[in-house]
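Z., the sequence and structure:
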Amino acid sequence: MVPQILKAATGRGWTITTAESCTGGMVAAALTDVSGASEMFQRGFVTYSNAAKSDMLGVRPATLETYGAVSEPVVHEMAEGARRAAGADIAVAISGIAGPGGSDTKPEGRVCYAIATAAGVSTQTIDHGALGRDAVRRAARDYALDMILAVLR
């Protein structure tokens, strides 16, 4: 999938950035695993803490307090902030509950995603299920890569 992302992004002259929480840089690592990645990827943001989300991406403390880190409003602001800070054409943002644990309102495996382009920001929440920490993180990485590819098609 990443070779198709590279081909489509470089064909358009577009750049991509990432804003990751629960995946801890896995999407950025996947995007830079292919030769020629520097044509489309210059930087990514690992914003695991709320302070990092605010400091690095401009997520408003009020948004974090009202909705919590695992929410569509937060990933929306993460994607906007990453796109702006990186000067990128596409930004993908991820925040979720990888596990173990979770709550009744935010169960293990719930991941919120956002993708930002010049056309705007789209968000969604996917319940991947209580697959275990590693599997949830891999599922989130793959889902985010699919989102990027869908924008480039």
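The chain is about 45% helix and 20% strand. The radius of gyration is 14 Å.

Let me know what you think.
H.
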